[in-house]
Amino acid sequence: MATSVEIWPDNVRAFNVFQGLRTQWRVGMGGATGLDFLVVYRRMDRLGLTPEEYDRLDEDIQVMEATALTVMHEQIEERSANSR
């Protein structure tokens, strides 16, 4: 089931970069461990950002990464609990 969300204008760039990284997760035995930041920074380098914009985008992506990891790990725990 798809969910519609509204992206605030201040977050559009961070969302677009994050969405473009959807295949760039590092994964271990317990699931995703985080984004491959070598790829993140390469993509960010191509955007022609000021140092302040770069730092802000980096922080925004890290917030989204942390939230996504929390949700993914909660889903893994739910599936594990439901299979017992």
Explain this structure:
With 84 residues, the chain is mainly α. The chain has a domain at 51-84. The protein is 60% helix and 11% strand. The protein has three helices and two strands. The protein has helices spanning 12-20, 37-45, 51-82; strands at residues 25-28, 31-35. It has a two-stranded antiparallel sheet. A hairpin with a 2-residue loop joins strand 1 (25-28) and strand 2 (31-35). The longest helix is centred in the last third of the chain and has 32 residues, at 51-82. The protein is globular, with a radius of gyration of 15 Å. The two termini are 25 Å apart. The mean pLDDT is 95.
Task: Pick out its properties.
single chain; 2 strands; mainly alpha; 11% strand; 84 residues; 3 helices
Order of helices and strands: HEEHH
- The side-by-side strand order for the widest beta sheet comes to 1-2
Q: Outline the low-pLDDT stretches.
A: none
Q: Percentage of helical residues?
A: 55-70%
Shape: globular
First-last Cα distance: 25 Å
Per DSSP, what share of the residues sits in E-state strands of 2 or more residues?
A: 5-15%
Overall mean pLDDT stands at 95
Oligomeric state as shown: single chain
What's the structural blueprint in terms of helices and strands?
Blueprint: H1 12-20, E1 25-28, E2 31-35, H2 37-45, H3 51-82
Antiparallel strand pairs: 1-2
Helix pairs in contact: 1-3
